[in-house]
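Q: Convert this sequence to structure tokens.
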Amino acid sequence: MIGILITVQINTWNENRKEQELVLSIFEEIQEDLQSDIEYVDILIEGFRLQEHALNSILSDTLEIEDFEKNHMLIYAICSYIPMITHKDGFNRLKEISNSLNEEGLNIFNQLKEIFYHDQFIIDNVNTSLEKAVNDNRQFLVYEKGFSIVNFANHLS
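A:
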């Protein structure tokens, strides 16, 4: 009888330890996801600075159509964008096991959930704004600066 109780306790202890290891590995994955997102945002910020510089040059008339024809990167700089996409694999894994989390893990999950959902709302709005800005830039080049749609399409392909 005592042997059965000890075996049950050892099994329970092993299951709890495995669950804790799983939760810890998921938290580490979330940390890696967030670090990747930070690095990605840093790259995007540099791209936005290039776009800002190119747009300011156009507005101050220091860039002409010929500059775009010589340097196709200028076209990409102001007429395209890379949408912000977050890494959520770790968070999604945590969400899958959220029913089995202890109180501390559940508190952390709820805080992360607020952050991820709130940030996604902001990211979606920023991506929509960027898409609109890119379309406005294209319209500006075509209608205000006289960049023909045919030339424009050729440079983008």
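Residues 2-59 form the longest helix (58 residues).
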